Amino acid sequence: MSSQIFCISVQPSFADTQEVNMVKVNAYPVTPTADLFQRVAVLAADFSTRAAACDRDGSFPFENFTALQQAQLLNLTVPQEFGGQGLGYAAVSRVIETIASGDAATALVLTMHYLQHANAARTRQWNPAIYEQLCRESLEGIALLNAARVEPELGTPARGGLPATTAQYTAKGWLLNGRKIYTTGSPILRYFIVWAQTTEAEPRVGNFLVPRNVPGVCIEETWDHMGMRATGSHDLILENVLIPEEYALDVRPVKAWSSPDPLQLAGNSLWLSALYQGVAKAARDWLVNYLNERSPTNLGASLATLPRFQTAIGEIEALIYASDRLIYSLANDIDRAEYDSNVGLEAQTVKYLTTTNAIRAVEKGLELIGNPGLSRHNPLERHYRDVLCSRIHTPQNDAICLSLGKQSLGVN
């Protein structure tokens, strides 16, 4: 795939900055409407009909997000006070899982959008007027958000280090310059939440709101990945991008970022776990259907009648069952406010276990049927490439196990 660069420009404006206090997750969040999961299931089935084509040529599934917006599914983590649905961790996990069973790439872009709104709603550290406007926009159209954090030299900020992307304060606002990679959803995002350091004598680090349509914002189409090919995770290039002063959403001294928000860690890990659980279930469903339909002439019956295949499907079901219990038990605990300060690491542990289970479940399907599973005519091959991407999302397995080991050993 040859890379292309697109630059466009228009600039909105928002109100002045105000300080607000951090708020905690409310116990017993809003209950989903009775038809929510039915609507989600219908959309997932529709998305699945286009997933292979988008994966094959790396095209972005724009029409999926039109459908999500029309079904009022882009505002699940927007607070009710701003017209959103304000759903809890368990309900959002179920939505993500179901969408992922139809199209994992769509689910990943949606998950990142949900996370940005959920974190902003919980902490209320952004400018209140700006945050309310972002919420209102999410109700009126397709106004997706995602973070732009990873850089060519830095890698993921979760591993430490300062970003090369800079934010210089001027009389007209902040001037940003830098390059971000793996910007998931870049073809459709309306706003990028850019991780940058200030050019002050003692640099501060934080998030800056960059609207898509301002001068100097460019997308270079570099994404040509093994899995999650339709996520449009291209490079974001910022060249003298001027944003208003109040678009500095949350900028702090470097040391002030040393203690991550446990619930932010929990949401990220749980919702990614749910996503890859959806991929594993989609692979399981295809495999079950294949085994019931496939009847070799020498057998005179379907492959589903053979004990070997029955045992393997049972092993896959056990992996999926264990992951369901882990994801939704912790998600419900958080929704009921029955958690402690260790909830972030607990959720990361869930991610480690459930994504390992998801990969193993799909692998077992491939081992079971051989060549048909690796044929691009069948979705199992795509599910396998997609599920392997679970290993690269922050936090990665080695970091999770290191944290668990330190905690167990009582060392820093």
Task: Note down, in words, how this protein is organized.
It is built from 11 helices and 9 strands. Strands 1, 2, 3, 4, 5, 6, 7, 8 and 9 form a 9-stranded mixed sheet that branches. It is α+β, with helices and mostly antiparallel strands and 412 residues long. The longest helix is centred in the last third of the chain and has 32 residues. The chain has 3 domains: 127 residues, Acyl-CoA dehydrogenase/oxidase, N-terminal domain (Butyryl-Coa Dehydrogenase, subunit A, domain 1, Orthogonal Bundle), CATH 1.10.540.10; 101 residues, Beta Barrel (Butyryl-CoA Dehydrogenase, subunit A, domain 2); 144 residues, Butyryl-CoA Dehydrogenase, subunit A, domain 3 (Up-down Bundle). The radius of gyration is 22 Å and the shape is globular.
Kindly identify the CATH topology of the largest domain: Butyryl-CoA Dehydrogenase, subunit A, domain 3
Instruction: Give the CATH H-level superfamily of the largest domain.
Output: Butyryl-CoA Dehydrogenase, subunit A, domain 3
Q: Indicate the percent of residues in helices.
A: 40-55%
Task: Determine the structural class based on helices, strands and strand pairing.
Answer: alpha+beta
Number of helices: 11
Work out the radius of gyration: 22 Å
What would CATH call the class of the largest domain?
Mainly Alpha
* Pattern of helices and strands: EHHHHHEEEEEEEEHHHHHH
CATH architecture of the largest domain: Up-down Bundle
Quote the beta fraction. Answer: 5-15%
Note the main sheet.
9 strands, mixed
Shape: globular
In whole angstroms, the N-to-C terminal distance is 45 Å
